[in-house]
Amino acid sequence: MGFSGFGIPKEKLPWIGIGVATEYVGEDPAFVRLCEEYPDLVQFVEYGGTVELGLDAGISNWARSGHPTTYHYLDINLGYGPPLSADWCEATAELARRINAPWICGDVGIWYYGQRLIKNVMLTHPILSQDSADRTADAIRELQERTGFNCFPENPPSHFYPGDIHLLDYFARLTEQADCWMTLDCAHLLMYQYAHGHDPLTGLDGFPLDRVGEIHIAGGTLLEMDQERYIIDSHIPQILPDTWTIVDYVFPRVANLRAICLEAEEQKTRPVALTLKQIHERWRRLAVAA
Amino acid sequence: MSLRDQYQFLFNVTYDNALRERFLSQPQNLLKEQGLAEEFRPLTQGRINRIRVESLARRGAYLKTFFSCFPKTTFVLTSACRSLEPLSSFFASPHFLNCFSSNESFVDAFNSFLAQQVRRYTSKVPSLPDLHSYEAALYLLRTRPHDEGGLTREVPMDLTRCLVQAPHALLRRFTYPITEIVEYIDYFTASSWYHLAPLYAAVDECMPTLVIPHEALSDPLLALLTLQGKELRVLKIKASQYDVLAGCDGTRSCHQLLEAVESADLPRLTAWLDYCWQKRILDYFEE
Q1: Tell me, what's the pLDDT at A279?
Q2: For residue B229, is it within any domain?
Q3: CA–CA dist B214, A219 (Å, integer)
Q4: pLDDT digit string (tens) for B174-218?
């Protein structure tokens, strides 16, 4: 994977460590308290933003102080394929530039129907077909070219997955077609595996994990109904055991990893810190062992 | 069939109960009708029943937003009916379906829907339409720009320019009191509360403080609702003050407004308009 014609060559993107996610809060976001109380645990912050809301004061101050920050878009429909809105891409790039993000990331699929308003945002999972992967790859190429940022597309959450190919086959094809790295959300992957009655690690043995530039880890709430298992993507700090199984499998195998993000926005500080410690400990143990 | 059409089909199946049940019982036939047979054949295999849970989860997420925007109206309405149906029927209504081709957000569309719904249930809770009007006004105030709402204006008004109300101010007529709201304790001890509490807990929301008016007013309460910074102000005003503010619709200047006022009221209403100008409740109409 070499230079792909936009932004910084992927090989030169920095390792920024283990961090936490935040979204637009306005005033006094929880990550600020976390960083004050546990400064060694948070090496970067990922901001989930929209053009409509912009940046909040918490993330602006954090980035202005020189701390590493990444930008996670919550408002770009990549699922339809090109063309994307040039103005929207530029506005997204401007937000990412203001926090000195080394790359941008975000779930693929359809973020909104109707007007592009934060009140209309409800992420729809991409259709898992080869055609859909190719069209989304085209959209990612356009997004990268228009913004000048490398984009790490992310596997989204859902309870229902339309299409005829495995989620990991979809992302293997997408990242190859777009020549990009991806954000692997381990909790979202577990949702997919449960939805199809698979084991947590099904399909990972043949997946090109060197395409994973960022890992997301989040807690979920497990429900069992009518002999089906459902995970509510609740972003609580308590990680499901099978999510840890996926994390433990991928940590030693992600040769190009640049960041690990715990998604537990606006949760109580102490439980988040405990989970962060577990992630640090696992990363030290497993990555070094690799 | 384009990807966009495929996503639109998925959206329709997710939110339209009747369509979804047809899809689950006769998937091949429905896909054929929709011209999606080839692209979506894989959809007819595997665990397609899970789309029911996807639908529930999405509705739940939207309802959480709606609860937070109109907490008291939604609580009182669902309490009175002991059901979420008056709210969840939104997803089958033209309000929801039409907002894709308009400039409305889902919340705005739900607000319009709720305005209709509450009128259907006045036999159960007569004050519901006013309660909703009140919350809709607060919602509108909070979502409209009001950057200068807290500052007093020193410059005198140009009496010849047309006037409009500023975005952080709203005139309302209420037939139930909104400034003397009392706790309606019966709702806390009624069984409906226990039915609803888990619903709020499920969406991680605190139960709204239950404050509903229950005595109708003999005359409509005329109120000017304003936001000053983040502070909400409810100002009871006189009928003549209401009328002169309602006249600020962008077609008349201060002079033209006062021409229609009886001479005895002129000093008082002139002072009232001047007060509203100073408090930025009024602004010039910019074409």
Answers
A1: 98
A2: no
A3: 44
A4: 887 764 343 333 343 344 444 455 455 555 555 555 555 567 788
Which pTM was predicted? 0.82
Query: Are the Cβ atoms of B7 and A124 closer than 8 angstroms?
Result: yes
Residue B22: which domain range? Answer: 1-46
Has residue B21 been placed in a domain?
A: yes
CA atoms within 13 A on the CB side of A42: 27
> What domain count does chain B have?
1
Specify if B13 maps to a domain: yes
Mean predicted confidence (pLDDT) in A46-62: 94
B-chain residue closest to A197, CA distance: B47
Q: What is the mean pLDDT of chain A?
A: 92
The minimal CB distance from B50 to the residues A115, A159, A164 is found for A159
Q: Does residue B209 form part of some domain?
A: no
> Which chain B residue lies closest to A113 (C-alpha atoms)?
B100
Helix extents (H) in chain B = 3-15, 17-25, 27-33, 50-69, 71-81, 85-88, 94-98, 106-120, 128-143, 186-189, 191-202, 239-246, 254-259, 266-278
Distance in Å, alpha carbon of A225 to nearest chain B alpha carbon: 10
User: DSSP string of A58-97?
Assistant: HHHHHHHTT--EEEEESS---TT-SPPPHHHHHHHHHHHH
| ipTM for this prediction | 0.86
- Closest Cα in chain A to B66: A119
A160 closest CB neighbour out of B50, B61, B99: B50
Provide, as residue numbers in chain B, all residues whose Cβ is less than 8 Å from the Cβ of A131: 3, 39
